[in-house]
Amino acid sequence: MLSIDGLNATVGEFQREYLYQIQLDSWPIAIAAAFPGAATFASNADLYAHKFKIPSSSTNPIKILWAGMWAFFDGPQNPEGVTDLEVRCDRKWDAHGFFLAWKNLTGDDTSGAALIKPLTIGQLSVLWVDVDKTTVLQKTTLFNASVKKISEIQLDKAGEKEISFVASIHYEKKKTLPGSGTV
Amino acid sequence: MLSLGANLLTSLSDGPPIIDIQRNYAFSATLFKTDWNFSGVSTYGSNVLQQGASVLTSTFSSDLYRYLNPIVMIPNLEYISGLIQKVSQPQQNILTKDIELGPVTIQVPKAITLESFQITFIEEIMGSVEYFWRNWFLEMTGKASLTFLEVRKLCLSFLFTRNAQGIIPGAEAPVNAYFYPNVLPISYEIDDWDKGGETYVASTITFIRIPKLPDLTKPTTAAQTYMANINNGIHP
């Protein structure tokens, strides 16, 4: 029988997409040289965060034809390796300054120069928060993360919205663990 | 026919009669030196790295030394081993000898030849792979004439293992070992320099095996210990 009578007991609450917190566990220290407000921004990054994509996970199959049929075996890992963080801009443009400085470590807009990899990577985590808005249920961490792209910013004399932009973050490893503590 | 049909049916329902397949990327390679006195790289590597580090440090961050320190170990064979990307296995041929038996000629196995093989290394930022092999060749060709024993001292040994797909990442079990002692680099090819390039730099070194001598240096203790732990080891 179709019914929602048991929903509360069985499912309980549904998770909300807005219940998360961004943490910059570490970031390239060279950003601070280009952008003095880096430390302040980094410690408050979640306040600027708007949208975040938990990256996909995937394993490439190796397909072997056998007697007119096929069989699948597990091949190399093939996640997209990139995710997007949409960030709202504050009036001082600190958020934009931080991520642009990070991107410029991987290839400067003006000179094209880039730092070696160990100096351009950081670590970013997203906390999955319970509907009580305090309990951390899970924590997903992106390792060796670096910003390779900052989206365009659309300025508009007739506009009515706040400004935001998207930072594309490439990473090499991802780990999701049960969370602990509160936010 | 009945048997064949039964097998075919089994195959179709169960897939290939194997538990799992070997992957071409699941391997590791270790480079051992046998008897080698070659110190030029460490001096060069240290100097260049120190200079590079000081430039980068003054420009960006004092944190740099923390990252660069491991790279100062460039002349380490283990470091070079870690940059191995691709190994083309030597083709092995069995030479045969014709024997005439009355009206027919049959071929019997006579010897096995081991052809050259190639290893591709990824270049790292300080150019250590190129420098490493370039100096190796200089060492080999820099003397007026090398005796066989001198050449022998420049030999390397490689240990390759095929690894099973591990349940725990990083803990893949070696299932087969291939030990190539007494190999000598004979040619050396690096990628073209290219202002329009879009990818990384790799070097390909071609090796040959040289014949054994009575006083051959044995594999290092580390190699022997490693191999002793490998099940089903193959020792060509």
What's the SSE blueprint?
The complex is a heterodimer of chains A (183) and B (236).
Chain A: H1 7-10, E1 20-26, H2 30-34, H3 38-43, H4 45-48, E2 49-52, E3 59-66, E4 69-77, E5 82-88, H5 94-105, E6 122-129, E7 136-150, E8 164-170, E9 173-178
Antiparallel strand pairs in A: 1-6, 2-5, 3-4, 5-8, 6-7, 7-8, 7-9
Chain B: H1 2-14, E1 27-33, H2 40-59, H3 64-68, H4 77-81, E2 84-88, E3 92-101, E4 104-114, E5 117-122, H5 128-141, H6 148-153, E6 156-163, E7 174-190, E8 202-209, H7 221-228
Antiparallel strand pairs in B: 1-6, 2-5, 3-4, 5-8, 6-7, 7-8
Describe this structure as you would to a colleague.
With 183 residues, chain A is of the alpha+beta class. Chain A has a single domain, classed as Pnp Oxidase, Chain A. Chain A contains five helices and nine strands. Chain A has helices at 7-10, 30-34, 38-43, 45-48, 94-105; strands at residues 20-26, 49-52, 59-66, 69-77, 82-88, 122-129, 136-150, 164-170, 173-178. In chain A, a hairpin with a 2-residue loop joins strand 3 and strand 4 (69-77). The radius of gyration of chain A is 20 Å and the shape is globular. Chain B is extended, with a radius of gyration of 23 Å. Chains A and B meet through strand 3 and strand 4 of A and helix 1 of B.
